[in-house]
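Protein entry
_____________
===
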Amino acid sequence: METSKEKQFLKIIKFMPSIFVIFFSIFVILFLYFENKNTFNEEKKDIEEKYILENKENIKEEVSRVYSFIKQLQKSTEQELKNSVKNRVYEAHGIATGIYEKYKDTKTNEEIFELIKIALGSLSFNDGRGYIFMDDVYGNKLLHPIDTSIEGKNFIDYTDARGYKLFQSIVNVIKEKTERFDEYYWYKPNTNGQVARKISFYKYFEPLNMAIGTGEYFEDFEKMIQKKALEYINMIKFGNSGYIFVLNYDGLYLSHIKKDYIGKNYIENKGIENSENVIPEMIEIAKKGNGFYSYIQNEKPTNNLPTKKISYIQGLNDWNWLIGTGFYEDDINSKILETKRKLDEKYDNYIKNILIIGSILIVILLLISRYVSLFLENKFRQYKKELDKKQLILHQQSKMAAMGEMIGNIAHQWRQPLSTITTASSGMVLQKEMGILTDEFFFEASKKINTSAQYLSQTIDDFRNFFSPNRQKTKFFLRNTFSTTLDLISAQFNAKEIHIIKNIEDIELFSYENELIQALINILNNSRDELLKKENDRYIFIDVYKNNIDEVNIIIKDNAGGIKEEVINKIFEPYFTTKHQSQGTGIGLYMTEEIVTKHLNGIISVKNKEFIFNDKKYFGAQFRIKLKLSEEE
């Protein structure tokens, strides 16, 4: 027979591994699903920031590259200017030397000078700005093709706009017979007296004891370098529609992908929405260094549609230039959408793989768990068989222990009926021998003998029923069950002056009656043993009633003083006893719990309780058995 708890345990063994595998696998799959979904969503969120940052870095790099190029040009401008004027002077010096060598033997120095003057005076370079001049050792201007009116005049004491006596430097070059660079501020031609920085180079011409030189205004040469820089910038193209634009701090376009913008003010071009605010704000950023700026460009170069643009601005304060480039939001959006689409495809494939692998894993784990369940179930049944054998042995030990007491009970219960039979039969024999046996005495004695014999027979039936191995559930009334129980043990209880107080409702139960009787006898005998330690007032109280949830409550308590608190939780353990080994085996209450919980599907508990009976206070152990009312199955 398997109890409901054992059946539940077998069901747990059979189904729990599979249920665990399914729930665990589903949990893992859902965890991976949501975890990766969150990861993909976060990644998709990061894509926009990533692309914006990436494109910001790209445009910043493009502008920085142009800025570095211009800075390098600026750095080399002065040196390049020096090289330029030096080369021109060397060329002029070579021409003068050639003329002198050609005519030195046939013409006078004055005639050779005039030939040299004519030859060098006709030289022009740097878009007509450059010319060759000549000065003598006294500071006289010998050649000045731009302004011939000053030829022949002495400038030895002349100072430039900043007080520098530049002609004394020329004289020193002649006297020292050397060459040198010079820097001064001279009046620019055709500028109404505007003064500008000029870099010159002088070289001594020994045959005529004079200096040949030339110079270039720095800003004019720098404009040439700026033009070179803008030509380089105009060639820069990157991405789908990337280009570099340049404005000066006055708002004039110097470079742009749309050529018609160049040379015009931003107000005229109207290429940017709200340009009257945007461009000045961009110029302010440039003046302060650099930064990003977002705005609407009215016409995107590739489609002529208004488009949001993010630009990086770099200021070049030496030239009062704003250098910038940008990227268009719709280009980024298309890349973002494409990347998100690829991520969605990747995620869909990932989910499919998870589902496929998860399904395969679930099937494999279910097969493994089923094998483990069958293995554990088999092991449990083997263990249960062994345990049942041990339980049967304990059960028989318990009954054998009870049998000794039962024999004593039989002896007590049979003593009086046997005495009655002996007395009646002896009286009949004696009166027969004396010849005085009357019919009345004979029938009376026969009746007593018959009554006593029936009592003996009933006692034998009660004990035989108790020890019967009957394992069938039956319907019985608890009042009759307790009557049978008390009949089996009453002799010893009466002999020890143990009073049993009963309050038993007549409740019908469907269960194993003999099992219940054995459990009750174990509890009552346990109380008896404790009550024998008392001198007087030995009581056992039995209460049986039905509660409002269709449960039978059987309460048995005594006034033997209770159970020690340190051992009260151990009394249902096997072989635990507070008695001497010669007095107890420790399996009585253990078997009682086994019977109640496993055979009768009930609950048994114990506690110490204080109560009042006949106006006297008592203290003892209280056992409570709860049994469910059950219909016949």
